């Protein structure tokens, strides 16, 4: 019988799960990555930093928020508190090399089909017969582009490439990040989003912007940001006659703007590439059982920021990493694969094994 | 029999232990504070911030590094990542009021003496017969002043009060903080300390400066800092003739400096006020058993940054708060005081119950 476990994606979730498998003594697995390890992070705008601070608390049971295995601290490795995407990409490459993870880079999975109790994973290079598929495709490569025009946050290579005053559409952490950087560069920024004021107090911390972002928005560099809360954009069109973009709001008002608006409109789940492997929510999220396994077919697991368990949202690294050991333990038991129980215990001791979700906050401002 | 538990000190440790007792349903206790709640933090230089970042991860088992009870986040309450001392003092006052803690402010404990199985706690107001003494005096009010001259870090109200280029003696986090602020204000700073280069890589994270401080030292504002590692200061004298301070190093060299040097030479344990209640290490630290209880007399407990367990150093809030529930459980059992087991469980679930010290890092760069 086939023993191969395949992980689709060499980002934070794929590398994290690969390290867990290695620590558990499981050797028969393969990570398939369409670009390179950490590609999404390497593609971040170069000035953009993590909103979750890294700290070296792992010696006392408080694991670095951005670590993907126990006793690791990217903040310590990189000597900084808020890593850039490039630094984090380097961290992922470094730990993948250290653990000698079997990663096939520049290899794209084009199709996955069920064949009896197994799956045929077809890439642009080869085909693999596997018994387990772990979907770890992230979201950053799958930007939501709801309008005819607009430059998506994910397309930005450097904030210094932007010139002129600009409209930002969206109100989450990425919109705040974009607004901060453009304002820091001296541009006037108008942010349109349907929510309430960014700095308004919310009784639920998970619905608020991060402390890091709140600090940035209160700083001098953010003086050029003009926020327009309670404003839903419904369309963005280009008028050749006006040589300008016309942005229509839900209330019918129309705004003209010379520069192409910046879209901070979020991301699709990367699992959507493999639509037939999951059932889907109305919001376009894959549905999984209590072991993060597809409700549609067995031995297909979801990991990474698209993961939901009922109302609980695992959109940050420090959240979804806590499910690695839970679903991996399940899949190893399902397939009768033996593993090192002591290594699993290390994950439990390090706040990286979250099976009781009753304690968790429900919402999340991603 | 007397049931009163007395906590000496209304700082982070005293307030944290008071909240724990309240949550456990224990009512017979009293916190005695010589100034006001959070006084040490309120006395920090007003620009100085916590080096430990606050983050709202408590919904997913990653408690804010600076919280003193489960589900609390000073970073969320104050809307910032690195709190100032004044903000933290406000947080402590706020939570003490919320939990209606019995705190006697502006009351100084002048003497504690054993009388049979009890202790007489004498204040400048009154005397209390108690069965348990919890020493939570912190360290900030007890600066080490090893030289004839020098302004101690603890004496600084605002970094803007300092004019002129200045020598700093000491190499820990407080020296780096002082150097950063003076350099930011445009003054040339010379830092003399016996250790190695601040930014040198150390394989042990606990011996390195925090990520926050590393970022500050690498920034533009730190360009006026000149570090002199491997330099031990042995004396600071004042020469009227030269109208200058003369600083002698261990290697015999003498440095003249116009401005009074700034001493970042650390702190004594506040427990030293009650010398007869503890045995002491050669380094001037109180010795406790595995339940943080004095090895000399029963029912006297130590909490806060002076706490050591063999080689393990509990110098940060996120470290020593993990011992609150361990020693409080012990003292309640010792005295047969009943308590809410469920509340204790909440502390265990929140990384606030550290009884197995084998997992902990030993050293610490405080």
From TrEMBL, chains A, B:
Keywords: Oxidoreductase. SUPFAM superfamilies: FAD/NAD(P)-binding domain (SSF51905). It comes from the Bacteria. It holds the Pfam family Pyr_redox_3. Gene3D superfamilies: FAD/NAD(P)-binding domain. One of its GO terms (molecular function) is monooxygenase activity. This is Pyridine nucleotide-disulfide oxidoreductase. It comes from Domibacillus mangrovi.
